[in-house]
Amino acid sequence: MKKEKQEREQESLKKPEISVRNREFAVITYCFIGLFLCLMGYFVYFQVKKSEDFINNSYNSRQETFAENILRGEIHSADGEILAKTETDENGNENRIYPYDNMFSHIVGYSTTKYGQSGIESWANFNLLRSNAFFLEKTVDEMKDQKSIGDNVVTTLNYSLQSIAYQALGEYDGAVIVLEPSTGKILAAVSKPDFDPNTIEENWENIIADEEDESVLVNRATQGLYPPGSTFKIFTALEYIRQNPNTYTDYSYTCTGNMQKEDNKLSCFSGEVHGNVDLEHSFSESCNTSFANIGLSLDLYKFQKNNQKLLFNQSLPVSKLETSKSSFVLNEDSSISEIMETAIGQGKTLVTPLHMAMIAGAIANDGILMEPYVIDHTENYEGAIVKTYTPVSYGELMTTEEAGILQEYMKQVVEEGTGSKLKGMSYEAAGKTGSAEYGNNKGDSHAWFVGYAHREDKEDIAIAVIVEGAGIGSAYAVPVAKSVFDMYYRY
Amino acid sequence: MSSIFCEVSKYLMIILFALYTFECFFVFRKKYNKEQRENIFRRQNIWMLLIHLDGYLVLLDQTENWGILLFYGVQLIFFISVIISYRLLYEKSAQLLVNNMCMLMAIGFLILTRLSIEQAFKQFAIAVAAMIFALGIPFCIKKIRFIRKMTWVYAVIGLLALSAVAVMGAVSYGAKLSVTIAGITLQPSEFVKIIFVFFVAGMLHKSTEFKQVVITTVVAAAHVIVLVLSRDLGGALIFFTVYLVMLYVATAKPVYFLGGLAGGSLAALVAYRLFSHVQVRVLAWQDPLSVIDNEGYQICQSLFAIGTGGWFGVGLNQGMPEKIPVVEQDFVFSAISEELGGIFALCLIMVCMSCFLMFLNIAMQLKDGFYKLVALGLGTTYGFQVFLTIGGVIKFIPSTGVTLPLVSYGGSSLLSTVIIFAIIQGFYILKESEGKLNEKRKTGKRTGVTQKTGNLR
C-alpha cells in the first residue's frame, strides 16, 4: 500500500494535469482488510474454542461414522480406576465393559449401538471416538485395516468417594453429590435406583416400561427435583440477613412449638419447643415457627430476585451434565400459608441435589461459585495429554461477609444442632439438615444434608445428600455425609 | 492402500493451496522484477492444476466412477485454454486475477462434483459459456466509450428487473430471488448488481453536488427497498453497502458514509422489529443450538460440519456435508471446510481477499474517474458478498443467504462474477496500454533506460 502511495505521489508530481485522489480508496481497502481479518479471526476462534460444543451435540450425526475407524477409548477415574473400556472378543465383536457395574451407572452412563449413549459416554462421545495416537501408527493401522485406539477420558470422579457414598446410601433411593468448592470438580455423583450398564441393552425394555415407577435412568443427583425441607433455611436466613444487614443479630423469637397466623397453623418438628431463639439458633435448631415468622417479614419481591441470582428458575451453569431447573415461585401475591410453608422449605419450592451442593460449595468458597465439571482431561491411549479442562469461575453468589455468617451458622448446626453426628472429627464440618415432607401422608419425609467439610491440609469438599422416604435428615442423611467426609480425610 | 492415498492427499492439497495463497501475496514484494513475477504466476498455475488433479484422483478413488476422469480431462482443457487465451488475446492482462478466478472455479467444480455430479456438469457448462462470453469484454471496454453516458438506462433496467422478481419471483427459503423465463431460471439481482454500479458511477462521476447526490440516493434506495420487499436481505445489504462506499469515495465526505451507516442500522432495527423472518435469522445466529429443530437447524449443521472437519478436514467424500440444507449454494464454504479442512478454508478466504485487493489496487491505479468508481463498486460488491456468505455460515454474523462467488453452485452468480472479473480485467488492460503510451512519450523526450515501476501483474 505504502509503495503504491509513494508511486502515486511521484506520478502526480510528474504529471500535475491529472489529479488522482486515492485516500478514500485506501480507507475502504483497509476497512475491508479489517473485515476479512475479523472473519478469519472468528473462524480460528470457533475452531479452537467453540467447535467442541457443536461437535459433541447429539444432533451431529457425524459421530456415528467415527466408530467405524476408531476403537472407543476408556473412561478413567481421577485416582486411576478404569470405569469403562471396550474389549474385542475373538470373533471381533466389541463389548463395552463397566468394571464397577452399577456404581457409576448414571454419571459414567452407558454406550450402546441400539440406544445411544448417556452420561459421560454421551458428553465425551466425540473425544472417545477420536484417536490422537502417533500418526505413523495410525497409518499402519489403516494399512492393516484395523481400528486405531481412541483417546481416553479422565474424569474428576474419585473412586473411593463414589464407592463409599454408594455403599452409605445402602438400599435407599436417593442421591449423593460431592464437589470440590475451590475448582468445581465433581468428585462423586451417586443416584439410586441404578442399573447395570453392562447389560442395559438386554434389560432396556424392562427399564423403559418402568412398572414400579422408579425412573431408573434419571440421574437424581443432577436432575432429581425434591422439596428442600429445612435445608432451604439457608436461603431464608441469607435473605433475612440481606434485608436487615445491620439488625439481623438483634432478631429474636419465642418458640412455643407451634404458631398460628390467621387460619394458618404451623408447628416445629414433633412439636418441640425451642423457647427464646435468635437467628443463629433458629437456624441451628431448625426452628420452623421462627423461620415462618421470618418469612412473613420478608420483602417477597426481593426474595424472588435474589433467589434467581442463587440459581433458581434457570439452567445451572454446568457444562455438559444434564440438569433440571430448581424452582422458587414465591411472589407478592402468595398467600400467608404459602409464605410460611416456603420459608421453611416446604410449599412449591423444588431443588436438585447438585444445586444444593453448589450453594454449599459457594458458601465454603467464601461466596464464589466454581462451575461444576466432570471431565478433567483427555489423553491418547499412551497417556499423552490431548486437552485439559480448567476450572471456570461463575462469579460471586454472595459476599464474603454473607458467606462467613452462613459458615458460622452451619458450623453451629454441627456443634449444637441437628448435625451433631459430625462433631469432633479430624475435620471441621458444617451444614444444614432437612426432612422434606412429600406426598399426602404427614410424616413421610426425605432426609437431607447439605454442607461441607474443612481441614487445613486438604481442599474443602461440599456435599448434598438426599435419602428418599427415609425420615429425618439428622438420622439418615448425616451419616452418609459422615462416611464420605471420613473417607476423604482418612489420612 | 486407498485410504493412505486419501490421507496423504488431504495434507498435500492443504500444502499446495497454502503455497498458492502465499504467493498471491508475496508476488508483490519489491525485490521481484517482472520476469520473476511471471515465474511465480506460472508456478501458481502448477499448484492449482496439482490441487485439481489430486482432488479428482481422490474422488475417483472414492467413487470408482471412471466417468469422473473424463470430466476432469475436459476441465483441464478448459483451465489451460482460459489461461492461454488471456495471455494470447490480452498480453497485458492481470495474471493474478486470471489465476485466482481459475483457482476458485476449480475448487467449486471439485466440491460440486463431490456433492452432486449433475450440478457440477451444469456448473461447468455455464462456466464455459461465461468464459467465452467474458473473453470479449476487455476488448469492448477498450472500444466502447459511451457506457458512462447511459446512467438512466441502467437505473430503469435494474429497477424493472428487480421489481419483476418482487412481483412474480419464485419463493425459495422465504426469499424471492429468481424468475423462470422459457425454462431458464435467472437470478436478476446478480446482474443488476453490475449495472447498478455503472449507474452510481455514472451519476457521481458527472457531479457530486448535493442535488445529484440526492437524486442518486433516491434511486439507490429504490433498489434496496425493492430487494427488501422481495425479502432478499443479502442482496439488499450488498446494494446498500456498495452504494455507501461509492458515495463516500466519490464525494470524499466521511459524513455520508457515517450517516448512511447510522441510517442503515436504524433501518435494520426497524426491520428486526417488523419482520418475523429477520427475527428468525437473528435468533438462529444468537443461539442456534437452542432452536436446532427449526430456525437453527441449517446453521447448526454447518457448524457441525466445520467443527468436525477441524483444521485438516476429514477428506474428500468422507464427511457428511449433504446434511446441510442448500449446501451447494449458500453453504458451500462449510462443505469445503469439513472435507478439505480449516486451513484450506482459511486459505480460501485469503484468496478471495487477494481478489478484492487486486480490484481495489486496479481502481487506485486507474486515471479515469468513472472507471475508478466502477472498479471500486464491483470490488466492494465482490468483497462484501464474500464477507456476508462466509460470515453467515461460520456464525460470525446472521446468515443472509448469499452465494460464494465462483465457488457456489448457480449459473447467474457464476456468470455475473465472471463478467465482473472480465470488466476489471478490461480496466487493467486499458491502464497498462495507457501506461505504455505515457512511457513512449517519456522515452521520446529523454533517451535512456526505461524501466517501468510497480505494475502489479
Describe this structure in words.
- The complex is a heterodimer of chains A (491) and B (457).
- Chain A has 17 helices and 21 strands.
- Chain A is α+β, with helices and mostly antiparallel strands and 491 residues long.
- In chain A, helix 7 (159-169) runs antiparallel to helix 17.
- The radius of gyration of chain A is 28 Å and the shape is globular.
- Chain B is an all-alpha fold and 457 residues long.
- Chain B folds into two domains: 1-135 and 296-377 and 388-457, no CATH class; 146-274.
- At the A-B interface, helix 1, helix 2 and helix 6 of A face helix 1, helix 10, helix 13, helix 15 and helix 16 of B.
Largest sheet of chain B: 3 strands, antiparallel
- Beta strand count of chain A: 21
Global morphology of chain B = globular
- Poorly predicted runs of chain B: 444-457
Helix content, binned percent of chain A: 25-40%
> In whole angstroms, how far apart are the ends of chain B?
43 Å
- Spatial strand sequence of the major β-sheet of chain B: 1-2-3
CATH architecture classification of the domain at 223-373 and 381-488 in chain A: 3-Layer(aba) Sandwich
The chain pair with the largest interface is:
A-B, 42 and 52 residues
Number of domains of chain B: 2
Given helix and strand content, the structural type of chain A is alpha+beta
Q: Gap between N and C termini of chain A, in Å?
A: 69 Å
**Average residue pLDDT of chain A:** 88
How are the strands of the largest sheet of chain A arranged?
A: 4-3-2-8-16-17
Radius of gyration of chain A: 28 Å
What count of helical segments of chain A does DSSP give? Answer: 17
The total of helices of chain B stands at: 17
The whole-angstrom Rg of chain B is 22 Å
